[in-house]
Design brief:
About 50% of the residues lie in helices and about 15% in strands. With about 425 residues, it is an alpha+beta fold. The protein has four domains: about 100 residues, Orthogonal Bundle (Butyryl-Coa Dehydrogenase, subunit A, domain 1); about 110 residues, Butyryl-CoA Dehydrogenase, subunit A, domain 2; about 150 residues, Up-down Bundle (Butyryl-CoA Dehydrogenase, subunit A, domain 3), CATH 1.20.140; about 30 residues, no CATH class. The strands form three sheets. Strands 1-4-5-8 form a four-stranded mixed β-sheet, covered by helices on one side. It has a four-stranded antiparallel β-sheet with strand order 2-3-7-6, with no helix packed on it. Helix 1 runs parallel beside helix 3 and helix 9 crosses helix 12. The two termini are about 40 Å apart.
C-alpha cells in the first residue's frame, strides 16, 4: 500500500535550498523592485537576472515544463511543494521562471504553437527575455465566454480583431498578448472562439487605462483595460485550432490553479507566522496576547484552515499526477480554487486584528493580503462558479431514492434488521 506524507530526501534538499534562497536573497527584492515583470526597469534588470542564473545552475528553472522545453518535468506534487515556498515573496516566481501568466502562456505555446511561433515567442518567454499577457475577460461579461463580443474576422491577409478586454494583467510591459476572440459565431457556444498572438504595439491595440487593486495608486495599476480597433494580424497569428480557445484555456488554467493555490498557502503561512510573533511579543492588561483565549482561538482556527487547504492542494496535485486527466480532477481543482481565497482572507484578517492599528496601516501587508484574497475569488473564474462545479460533481456520485422516505430512515432500517436477525432476537426474547 503506497501512502506517504514525506518528501524524498533529494527533493527535500532542493526545497531547503529554495527556502533559504527565497528568505535571504529574494525577499529583500520585494522592497526595491516595483514591478518584477517590467523588463525595462534598470533596478530589476540588475538584481533579478543574477538570481535567475543561480536557479538555473541549481536545475530549478521553469520546473512546470518538461525536459524538452528546458524544465525538469516535475509532477504536480513536487510543483505544489515548490510553489508553497515561492508564494512567500512577490519576486520569487519570476526568479524561478514560474510566474503567471507567462507559465500558462508558455504551456499553450508549447502544446499548440507552430515551430515559428515557438521560435519567435516561446523561446524568449522561457528565457524571461520578455513577458506576456493573457487577454480573455471582457468588461460586460467577466470570464463567461458565452457573453464575449470581441471578434476576429478573416480577411485576405489574415484577421481583423475588434472589441474590448478587461483586466489583462501586465499588458503594459508585455511583448505580446494572447487574445481570445469570436471567429465562428454559428458554432456551439464553447467552440466559437479562437486564440491569437498579437504583438504589443500592433496598430489598433490601445490601453484605455491600467487598473490597480485596492490601495494601489492610479498610476500603479498593472491590470489593463484594452481596446482592439481594427487590429490586423497575419494568418499565422492564429494559435492552436480554430474554435479551440475554450479547450485551450481550460488546459492552461487547470494545473496553474494548483500552483497558484500552493503559493497562496505560502502567503497565508507568512501571515500566520506574523500573527504568532505578534501574539508572543505584545501584552495587554498585564498579560501576553498569546495567553488570551480569543487570540488562541484565532491562531487555532488559522492553523486548521491552513493545513486543510494545504492537504487538499497536495491531494489534488497527487490526483493530477496519478490520472493525467484534468477532466477527472476538475471538481478537485474547483474545490481548491473555491477554498483558497477564503483561507487567505480569514488568516490575514485575524493577523490584522491581532496587530491592532498597526495591522490596518500600510506599514504591514495585511490589507494587501485581504485585497488579494478578493482578487483570487474572481481570477480564473469566480468562486461561485467553482462551487457549482464541486456541487455537481458531488451530486453525480449520489443517487435519489425511489421510496417515500430517505434510504437511511430509521424505522425502515429497524424493520430490515428485525427481519435479518429474527431468529437471534426470538431466542433472546428481544425486539428492537
Amino acid at each position: 500500500m503506497a501512502w506517504d506524507f514525506e518528501t524524498d530526501p533529494e527533493f527535500q534538499r532542493d526545497l531547503d535550498w529554495v527556502q533559504e534562497f527565497v528568505r535571504d536573497e529574494i525577499d529583500p527584492l520585494d522592497h526595491v523592485v516595483r514591478n518584477p515583470y517590467d523588463i525595462q526597469d534598470p533596478i530589476r534588470a540588475e538584481l533579478i537576472p543574477p538570481l535567475q542564473g543561480k536557479v538555473r545552475d541549481r536545475g530549478l528553472w521553469a520546473c512546470h515544463l518538461g525536459p524538452e522545453l528546458g524544465g525538469p518535468g516535475y509532477g504536480q506534487v513536487k510543483l505544489a511543494l515548490l510553489n508553497e515556498i515561492l508564494g512567500e515573496a512577490r519576486c520569487a516566481p519570476i526568479v524561478f521562471g514560474a510566474q503567471a501568466p507567462d507559465s500558462g502562456n508558455s504551456e499553450i505555446l508549447a502544446r499548440f504553437g507552430t515551430p515559428d511561433q515557438k521560435r519567435r515567442w516561446l523561446e524568449p518567454l522561457l528565457a524571461n527575455e520578455i513577458v506576456s499577457a493573457f487577454s480573455m475577460t471582457e468588461p460586460q461579461g467577466g470570464a463567461d465566454p458565452q457573453t464575449f463580443t470581441t471578434s476576429a474576422a478573416p480577411d485576405r491577409n489574415g484577421w481583423v480583431i475588434n472589441g474590448e478586454k478587461w483586466f489583462t494583467s501586465n499588458a503594459a510591459v508585455a511583448a505580446f498578448l494572447i487574445v481570445m476572440a469570436i471567429t465562428d459565431p454559428n458554432n456551439p457556444p464553447y467552440q466559437q472562439q479562437s486564440m491569437f498572438i498579437v504583438p504589443v504595439g500592433t496598430p489598433g491595440v490601445k490601453i484605455v487605462r491600467n487598473v490597480g487593486l485596492g490601495n494601489d495608486r492610479t498610476d500603479e495599476g498593472t491590470h489593463a483595460y484594452l481596446r482592439y480597433t481594427d487590429v490586423r494580424v497575419p494568418g499565422d497569428a492564429l494559435l492552436g485550432p480554430r474554435g479551440g480557445a475554450f479547450m485551450m484555456a481550460q488546459t492552461r488554467l487547470g494545473a496553474g490553479r494548483i500552483h497558484h493555490a500552493m503559493r497562496t498557502v505560502g502567503l497565508a503561512r507568512r501571515a500566520m507566522d506574523m500573527m504568532c510573533e505578534r501574539a508572543l511579543s505584545r501584552t495587554t492588561q498585564g498579560e501576553q496576547l498569546a495567553r488570551k483565549q480569543l487570540v488562541q482561538e484565532m491562531i487555532a482556527d488559522s492553523w486548521l484552515e491552513l493545513e486543510t487547504l494545504r492537504l487538499l492542494v497536495l491531494r489534488t496535485a497527487w490526483r493530477i499526477d496519478r490520472y493525467q486527466d484534468h477532466r477527472r480532477v476538475r471538481g478537485d481543482i474547483a474545490a481548491v480554487k473555491a477554498m483558497m481565497p477564503r483561507v487567505l482572507h480569514g488568516i490575514a484578517s485575524r493577523a490584522l486584528q491581532i496587530h491592532g492599528s498597526l495591522g490596518v496601516s500600510n506599514e504591514m501587508p495585511f490589507v494587501d493580503y485581504i485585497v488579494q484574497a478578493y482578487n483570487m475569488a474572481l481570477a480564473d473564474g469566480p468562486t461561485e462558479v467553482h462551487k457549482i462545479t464541486v456541487a455537481r460533481q458531488v451530486l453525480a456520485d449520489h443517487a435519489p431514492t425511489d421510496g417515500l422516505f430517505p434510504s437511511r430512515h430509521r424505522p425502515a432500517l429497524r424493520a430490515q434488521a428485525q427481519e435479518l436477525y429474527a431468529e437471534v432476537l426470538a431466542r433472546h426474547g428481544r425486539r428492537l
